[in-house]
Amino acid sequence: MAAIPIQNQPMDDEETLQYFTPAPLAPVLAPIQINMAEAQETTEGDEETRAAKGSLKGSPSTKFDGDRKMAKKFLNDFKTYKFLNRKNETMKILANRVALALTFIKGEHVQDWAHEVMKNMED
């Protein structure tokens, strides 16, 4: 709030009285209107961007060491993990998804196979 300079006014031939007058108030602005549909679309777009570029959600699959009895469980776990993260860039791109799955395939019986798959993808 800006103040108007101090003014001197004589008062009945006595000493000068000093006072100030505050500046006029700024005009009142019209209320801001928000289109909630547009605001919601922006929020949903931001969430999708975060989901696509952010870290993966949920628990990753347990390691698969080549035990055939555990193959079906590993595949089901990975499918669930994939579905939960379906909007994430890692899951949208097939090569990235395969590379991610290979990170869960560890062990003496499968390491050569996993290495060959990765090598073929790189070629």
Explain what the structure shows:
The chain is mostly helical and 123 residues long. It contains 5 helices and 2 strands, in the order E-E-H-H-H-H-H. It has helices spanning 36-53, 71-84, 89-92, 94-103, 111-122; strands at residues 7-9, 17-19. Strands 1-2 form a two-stranded antiparallel sheet. A hairpin with a 7-residue loop joins strand 1 and strand 2 (17-19). The longest helix has 18 residues, at 36-53. The protein is rod-shaped. It starts with 6 loop residues before the first strand and ends with a helix.
Strand content: under 5%
Mean of all residue-level pLDDT scores: 78
The overall strand count is: 2
Strand order of the largest sheet: 1-2
Secondary structure category: mainly alpha
How far apart are the termini?
A: 70 Å
Largest sheet: 2 strands, antiparallel
- Coarse morphology: rod-shaped
The number of helical elements comes to 5
List keywords for this structure.
123 residues; mainly alpha; two-stranded antiparallel sheet; 47% helix; 5% strand; rod-shaped
Layout of SSEs?
Elements: E1 7-9, E2 17-19, H1 36-53, H2 71-84, H3 89-92, H4 94-103, H5 111-122
Briefly summarize what is shown:
47% of the residues lie in helices and 5% in strands. By secondary structure, the chain is mostly helical. The chain has a two-stranded antiparallel ribbon.
